[in-house]
Amino acid sequence: MAGNHKEEFGLLWDYTHELRLKMLGSTIRMAFQRVTVDFLPHFKRYYVCFDALKRGWKARCKQLIGLDSFFLKCPFKSEFLTAVGRDTNNQMLPIAWGIEIAIFDILPRVEHRNCARQVFANWSMRKLGKSYECDFWQIVKCTAEREWGDLYSALEKKYKDV
After folding, report:
1. Measured between alpha carbons, how far is residue 53 from residues 31, 106, 132 in Å?
2. Exposed, middle or buried by CB within 10 Å (0-12, 13-18, 19+), for 157?
3. What is the residue range of 135's domain?
4. What is the pLDDT of residues 70-86, one digit of tens each?
5. d(Cα 29, Cα 32) in Å, to the nearest integer?
6. How many domains does the chain have?
7. Number of neighbouring beta carbons within 10 Å of residue 92
8. What is the mean pLDDT of residues 13-17?
């Protein structure tokens, strides 16, 4: 966010109203909290899921939803959460996104795992080469646990000194 934060947050009601008028069928939720009736509302979270993205995901995507989040480095110290699916070309398709205080408050019993790209980025600092990268992505794309185990064991043997 750039500019005056108070003014920008004040416009959220206008943005929400405009989205609801123009994007029929979309889900737009804004949560806020009032301490008392006399106080201005305190912003909590904002959620958007466009109708076209919902319909596209239901019609053409693999039945898999990935959640990713990152912390905002602004004066408000919050978390930005996105939900993505995979389309028929195996490309990422955004489904919904929003600002949330913490994902663990919403999905406390869901397994949380690191994204393969983040894991590879952390490992790639070791400069293991193109062969290692190909082996890594082959393991990531496995759909059977046994195949994954076999490929992972082979990778461990191949790079046991690393």
Report:
1. 22, 22, 35
2. exposed
3. 114-162
4. 676 666 666 677 777 77
5. 10
6. 2
7. 13
8. 86
Question: Would you state the structure tokens that stand for residue 138, as one six-digit string?
Answer: 């082959």
| 92 shares its domain with 152 | no
Point out the domain boundary residue: 92, 108, 124. 108
Q: What is the residue type of 88?
A: T
- Find tokens 């909290």 and name the residue: 33
Does 119 lie in the same domain as 103? no
- Reported as a single tens digit per residue, the pLDDT across 19-69 is 899 888 888 888 877 777 777 777 777 888 888 878 877 777 666 677 777
Q: What is the CA radius of gyration of the chain?
A: 21
Q: Are 133 and 152 in contact (CB under 8 A)?
A: no
